[in-house]
Amino acid sequence: MLLAHLQQPASPAPQEDPGPAPALDAKDVLAATERFPWALAAPGTRHWPDGEFLDVALRAVRTAERQEYIERLEAFVEQHRARLEELLRAYGPGSKPASHGRYALIGQPETLVILERMEANPFGLRSKWEKELETVILDDLEFAWGPRIRLSR
Fold first, then answer.
1. CA angle, 134 as apex, 33 and 112 as ends, to 5°?
2. Res 17: pLDDT
3. Is 153 domain-assigned?
4. Of 105, 133, 148, 151, which cross-links 126 as Cys (Cβ 3.0–4.6 Å)?
5. How far is residue 1's CA from residue 72's CA, in Å, rounded to a whole number?
6. How far apart, in whole angstroms, are the C-alpha atoms of residue 90 and residue 64?
7. Domain assignment of residue 53, yes or no
8. If we measure between CA atoms, which residue out of 37, 41, 38 comes closest to residue 108?
9. What burial class does residue 90 get, using C-beta atoms within 10 Å of its C-beta: 0-12 exposed, 13-18 middle, 19+ buried?
10. What whole-number distance in Å separates Cα of residue 115 and Cα of residue 77?
11. Residue 2 counted as domain residue
12. pLDDT value at residue 103
């Protein structure tokens, strides 16, 4: 047995750590979301400036998902096209629920990222959101989207 062990080839050298995944560029992600005008409100009817909501949602993207995140987001939006169109129609600008201001994120480009994260990493999104933002907006978006897992109380 010792002879058989010595005749085996040496173990391959350990792989070098590739380092952290590249950070997601919010501008690139927003540009990707703008390719789906049927899922977004017209620019003049959007309520929030781009920024903090998107930043929080992007922090919920796991390291392993970052490299191909834009492709992942595009696939999510195409897969859920009918659902996104209905969400915009039912809760977006000009709808009765939107007149109360509670669904102001619906129709915003960053909402596509938030919804994708709601489906892919709901606990991570909720955790990041609760640390930085009021949860009522996320709770309302979660209610309107109707995800598989309800994280709100």
1. 15
2. 43
3. no
4. 151
5. 50
6. 34
7. yes
8. 41
9. middle
10. 9
11. no
12. 87
Locate all alpha helices (DSSP H) within 9-108, ordered by sequence: 26-33, 52-59, 63-66, 69-79, 81-91
Decide: helix, strand or coil at residue 94. coil
Task: Read off the tokens for 75.
Answer: 């696939």
* pLDDT the model gives residue 100: 80
Count Cβ atoms below 10 Å from residue 112 Cβ, excluding itself: 25
Dihedral, 136, 138, 140, 146 alpha carbons, nearest 10: -150
Instruction: Profile the chain (153 residues) by mean pLDDT over runs of 10 residues.
Output: 57 51 84 92 70 90 95 97 95 87 87 95 95 92 78 53
**For the chain, where are the alpha helices, taking DSSP H only?**
2-7, 26-33, 52-59, 63-66, 69-79, 81-91, 109-120, 122-132, 135-145
92 within 8 A of 119, measured Cβ to Cβ:
no
The owner of tokens 């595009």 is: 74
Distance CA 72, CA 18 (A): 21
Token duo for residue 67: 């490299």
The pLDDT, as a whole number, for residue 131 is 95
Q: Which domain holds residue 34?
A: 22-145
Overall domain count for the chain: 1
